[in-house]
Amino acid sequence: MTLVNRSAEPLVEILLATYNGGQYLSEQLDSLFAQTYKNWKLLVHDDGSVDDTLEIVRRYASREPGKITLVDDRYRAGGAKNNFAHLMSLATADYVSFCDQDDIWLPNKLECSIAALTESEARWGKDVPIAVFTDAKVVDAELEPVAPSLWQHQATSPGLAKSFRRLSIRNCVTGCTMMINRAALDNALPIPDVAVMHDWWIALTILKCQGVLRPIGRSTVLYRQHSSNAVGAQNHGFRRFMGKAARPIQMYREVVGGYLMAKQVGAYDNPGEYVLQKTKEIGRSMISSTSHE
């Protein structure tokens, strides 16, 4: 991978969707300012926090004038997906990254991602929707290691990104590790209500139009698992499946929600076929998870 020429570093716009994130937000913001790649700006939209989230954002913004923009509007997203979609609609840069409020970025995250993305654009063209994404290290609330690989922990594989239909069954592109170009951002908007999450929808729309999803086989994020977001990093193998089997309504909603998104994006029209492929993917995940336990 060729490193970016520092005399011509393109601007990266980082989108940060916040909601009652004060407990860990300062650590995340510190990790942004510790990036080796310096040509970035942060766009923040808060979804009605009642803790000290806004105070923290404003404090950091005052330290670095022009580096952080806090969107001051009355829009209430009601969740992370719509909050990020709102930020996407406001983004102006040619390259965009997505930032969760409770993680920590490793110092070379932006440098690694922008190098891979601009390299891919040089090959495929700037008009082609492109995203790069990486693995992550799973840590607990105190940053103690939980798993060295989020992909392995969730019994998934970046290889899913090679298949439009398989990716519509199971996502492997984690938003906090992803960077996209302007073509990918424009192509993904507007994000419909049936989309399960913004990152999954973006990845699917890229593949739908023969764009490029490029995995980078390294971790660039400490993915923090705590009481408020533990679902995001749960093991997706046998134990998780059995837990959901004991909650059939939750499983039903997940399957139906996934099918509606897959139908909207054009991956599946037949719900029976979708359920069959979903069952097969669950089986593969269970086998993979068991082999790593």
TrEMBL record:
One example GO MF annotation: hexosyltransferase activity
Residue ranges annotated for the Glycosyltransferase 2-like domain, each copy included: 14-184
Alphabetical list of InterPro entries matching this protein: Glyco_trans_2-like, Nucleotide-diphossugar_trans
Highest taxon listed in the record's lineage: Bacteria
UniProt KW Transferase keyword: yes
Keyword Transferase tagged: yes
Pfam families per the UniProt record, alphabetical: Glycos_transf_2
Keywords: Transferase
PANTHER family: GLYCOSYLTRANSFERASE (PTHR22916), UDP-GLCNAC:BETAGAL BETA-1,3-N-ACETYLGLUCOSAMINYLTRANSFERASE-LIKE PROTEIN 1 (PTHR22916:SF3)
Name of the molecule in the record: Glycosyl transferase family 2
Native source species: Thiohalomonas denitrificans
